[in-house]
Specification:
With 522 residues, the chain is α/β, with parallel strands linked by helices. The protein is 52% helix and 14% strand. The protein is built from 22 helices and 15 strands. A 5-stranded parallel beta sheet has the order 2-1-3-4-5, sandwiched between helices. Strands 7-6-8-9-10 form a 5-stranded parallel beta sheet, with helices on both faces. A 5-stranded parallel beta sheet has the order 12-11-13-14-15, with helices on both faces. Strand 1, helix 1 and strand 2 form a beta-alpha-beta unit. Helix 9 packs antiparallel against helix 10 and helix 14 packs parallel to helix 15. The radius of gyration is 29 Å and the shape is elongated.
Length: 522
């Protein structure tokens, strides 16, 4: 089996290359830096090498020269292909003089990749396997500047991809004006922020060449190379406006129509139903008329009813025996906050239903500890039998269906990414949004959430500061917080993890991978 090494610092490019090489019957290794690649090249023999030219630290050309300078290595004579966005005249000759076997322009053209692979790795049936990635609806084919197969993979479904394009188009003109204003006013900080946001947004819709160009401009702004920005700005804006015009003239069905068709199709599919037993756990401290009424009424309705004292230890030993919890408030309701945390966790983990019996003042206390959305039914004392029976039926139905939808809060100052992420996640979660750290604090004051996706780079109150403020709030101190960022440099990662978040997700992560990472944190 042939073995290939691909070296590129950009995650989007590595993902694209993996997709293009999938199922070709080769072993593909990847490295995201020249130093990482040298370690692999010294110990492993490869049949073909692909080096990105422009990389921080050690460029692809420098990596190639370093490889040749190592006398005893298994890849001294392995053919190497340069990958570059450089389209200037004479580029091919320049790479040949350096010693590269070939060079391929980025974004990679599958046909060109097939030509190179066929030339240096004979015997692989690349044709049909590469072409299959372009089995797309006609309206998604031939969009200049967009790799639709990549965009479809990023978004996870056809309607999500079309929605992301709709969002991109809706803010494209406003973003163009903001970029031009930052450039003409030499507000390099604002210009760099615009490039940072555009880098991720373009990648999400498969505009890989524009994404890479934005990344280069962002890098120039970050290191203070403003002369490079001045020289390259017009060329960059030509790419930006060209894509904007291309999308404007492309006719597509609306994302809403596509989603409606898919949802109508899904309606015909059987919905999963949980198999639960009619077991109820009644949590009450004192022997009262209400307790006796509840136990007797449950048993008359065919339930197996267990009684539990309101202590964390006793609740933990009995919680798994029931899918419905009935909590009868008592005089000492404020003394067992640890119990309420365990009740909340049990409701989340088991999709159990919770009924609370007490007075309105006691409801308010429990809502701040267990959470409003965890309480399925609230009843006042003295208890009315019919209301209780209706409430138990409601709890049972909810337990059967399973309250699988949890609530996420997405915090990001980039409107485009905020709307795209909301669209991606709303199929599986209830999604709240905030466009600043200050707004996020306001949302959390009145809403229970199960996790927070927090943009790391925001003006005024940035991600780390918002993180610290949220952690100071007792009610939110255990909520998983996952940082979102367009930067993957080592310093950013180290700083983020120093705050001990639940995760760290790159903004160019595709929809399925994003959902996977969120599930791991919940």
């Amino acid at each position: 089996m042939y073995r290939i090494l691909y070296v590129d610092d950009e995650l989007t490019n590595r993902m694209l290359f993996k997709r293009l090489m999938k199922d070709l019957g080769v072993t593909l290794d990847v490295a995201e830096s020249g130093m990482e690649a040298l370690v692999k090249l010294k110990s492993t023999s490869y049949d073909l090498l692909f080096f990105d030219h422009i990389m921080p630290g050690m460029s692809g050309v420098e990596l190639f020269e370093s490889l040749k300078a190592i006398g005893d290595n298994p890849n001294r004579h392995t053919p190497c292909v340069a990958l570059t966005g450089n389209t200037m005249e004479g580029a091919a000759e320049m790479y040949r003089q350096k010693g590269f076997a070939e060079y391929i322009k980025k974004p990679v053209d599958p046909a060109e990749l097939r030509r190179v692979v066929d030339k240096y790795l004979p015997g692989l049936d690349t044709g049909a396997k590469v072409d299959k990635f372009f089995d797309l609806p006609a309206y998604l084919q031939g969009i200049k500047g967009i790799d639709s197969a990549y965009g479809l993979k990023m978004n996870g479904s056809e309607d999500s991809f079309v929605y992301s394009i709709e969002v991109y188009k809706s803010v494209a003109e406003k973003r163009r004006e903001e970029i031009e204003a930052a450039f003409s006013g030499e507000n390099w900080k604002a210009y760099t922020i615009q490039m940072h946001s555009l880098k991720s947004a373009a990648a999400i819709i498969g505009a890989l060449e524009l994404s890479e160009a934005a990344a280069e401009m962002e890098s120039a702004g970050t290191v203070g190379d403003y002369e490079k920005i001045r020289l390259r700005h017009r060329e960059f804006m030509f790419k930006y406006v060209t894509l904007m015009n291309e999308l404007e003239k492309k006719h597509m069905p609306s994302a809403l129509d596509l989603r409606t068709f898919r949802e109508l199709d899904d309606m015909n599919k059987p919905k999963p139903v949980r198999q639960i037993k009619k077991n109820a756990l009644v949590i009450c401290g004192r022997e009262t008329i209400t307790l006796r009424t509840v136990l007797n009424k449950l048993r008359s309705m065919g339930y197996r009813a267990f009684r539990c004292h309101p202590t964390p230890v006793e609740f933990d030993t009995m919680k798994d025996n029931a899918d419905i919890y009935v909590f009868i408030c008592g005089d000492d309701i404020e003394d067992e906050e640890d119990l309420y945390t365990r009740m909340k966790n049990a409701c989340v983990e088991k999709y159990a239903s919770l009924m609370v019996i007490g007075d309105p003042g006691e409801y308010v206390f429990l809502e701040t500890t267990v959470g409003k959305k965890r309480i399925t039914c609230r009843l006042q004392t003295p208890l009315i039998a019919e209301d209780f029976m209706d409430g138990i039926d409601e709890c049972f139905q909810k337990a059967v269906v399973g309250d699988r939808r949890k609530t996420l809060l997405i915090v990001d100052d980039d409107e485009m990414y905020l709307r795209m992420a909301e669209n991606w996640l709303s199929e599986d979660y209830d999604v709240l949004t905030a466009h600043s750290g200050t707004m996020a604090i306001s949302v959390l004051a009145t809403n229970d959430v199960d996790a927070i996706l927090l943009d790391y780079e925001m003006p005024v109150v940035d991600g780390p500061k918002s993180f610290e403020i949220i952690r100071m709030d007792y009610d939110q101190k255990d909520v998983p917080i996952i940082f979102l960022t367009g930067n993957r440099d080592r310093n950013s990662v180290v700083t983020a993890y120093g705050l001990n978040p639940s995760g760290y997700i790159l903004k160019n992560t595709d929809r399925n991978e994003l959902l996977k990472k969120i599930r791991e944190c919940l």
